[in-house]
Predict the structure.
Amino acid sequence: MNKNIILIGFMGCGKTSIGKNLSIITGKMFIDTDEQIQNDIGMSISQIFEQFGEKYFRKLENDLCRQISKSKNKIIATGGGIVKNSNNMKKLMENGIVIYLKSSPEKIYDNLKCDNSRPLLDVPDKFEKIKELFNQRVNIYESYAQITIDTTKNNINENTQLIIEQLQKL
Ligand code: S3P
């Protein structure tokens, strides 16, 4: 199977850590869209949002999805908002299997309460914002999921193993 493995899900659900783990185990190359954008532009996600705005960031994401869709055999951890643009998903799905890392607002808050790297959560009430965005997006994540892994129950290694088992069934 030389399709890309596309990890989608809300901020802080474990896409990057699980993706890196999957990459080590499968030997497939790992790409993190946020990391790639930061490296390409030479700025952090927060700086990009602050200086150029979210719309510009979304354009960079869109350009990158088009580029990634040409690659094969990669593990791709996506930014949590990538699903908002159906063209991104269309491109990524051309040569990829979509795995939704499902989480809960409570678990996400717990993972991100001390993290300041997500500009969209840089608000006085972080938990409220997480719930608001989560409710807006949960149906979108579910609609693209070819495999769903509930990340609230297990640790990173166990979740990685679950993904491998599911992929073997395909
Ligand atoms: C975003 C998620 C972030 C990053 C940006 C916007 C979002 O990525 O792309 O801060 O809209 O959900 P992670 O999901 O890796 O945190």
In short: The first strand starts at residue 4 and ends at 8. The chain is about 55% helix and 15% strand. The chain has a mean pLDDT of 97.
